[in-house]
Amino acid sequence: MFKIRSEADKWKYVVGITGMAVCLSVLLTWLLLGDGLTTDMLRASILGPLLIAPPACLMSANRSLEIHQLNKQLEHLLAHDQMTNLLSRSHFMRQMHEMQGDLRGSFLMLDIDLFKQVNDTYGHLVGDEVIRRVAAVIEEHVKQDGLAARYGGEEFVVCLPQKDLDDAMQRAEDIRQAVERQTVKVLDKELNCTISIGLGYADGRNPVEEVLRRADEALYLAKRQGRNRVGAPLPLAT
């Protein structure tokens, strides 16, 4: 079955089906009339499909393309967090499990510091904007070679495949500093926020849940040590 995924596919479909209809019409006319086939009859066998097939094919192709585009939109909605447009937690974890045996690289667990105070002081609309701003910073720093997801609430997770802990530590520090520099305007004030980050490393031997748990422990150790810092990874069980 011809799959219509783009405008180019649509017109290939219209031309292809129309051409097949013309050929089939001419063939059937010749088989039915044989030596009695006249020029006018041949012309009619060609013009008929040319008048009928293109609009019918175009209608069908437009519908198929529309369905494909709607399916792509639905896939995007299911795979992404609606507030931040980062990957959803479920989609992120599904990708990690698919790579489980071959997964080598670093993980970052990130959490906005004192976020409850932001919500309580400025309201949830400002809190939502803070989440979006932090998510945008994270995405900007990992979009070339990593995966970022909203893990839940004000917490995020990043996977940096094939990156060692030194690279991950530098990336985490870059993200931390970028978040610290940005501001969110609230009425006549500028609100600053910070994040704490914990690191973990996957060597292919431990389940991804265990790697993330250790990264989460490193994150909360960083918070206990004063927040707005990057926590070194805790050792994994062997």
UniProtKB/TrEMBL annotation:
PROSITE patterns: GGDEF. Keywords: Membrane, Transmembrane, Transmembrane helix. Residues 103-235 form the GGDEF domain. GO terms for biological process: cell adhesion involved in single-species biofilm formation; negative regulation of bacterial-type flagellum-dependent cell motility. The chain crosses the membrane at residues 12-32. It catalyses: 2 GTP = 3',3'-c-di-GMP + 2 diphosphate. One of its GO terms (molecular function) is diguanylate cyclase activity. CDD domains: GGDEF (cd01949). SUPFAM superfamilies: Nucleotide cyclase. Its EC number is 2.7.7.65. This is diguanylate cyclase. It comes from Phaeobacter gallaeciensis.
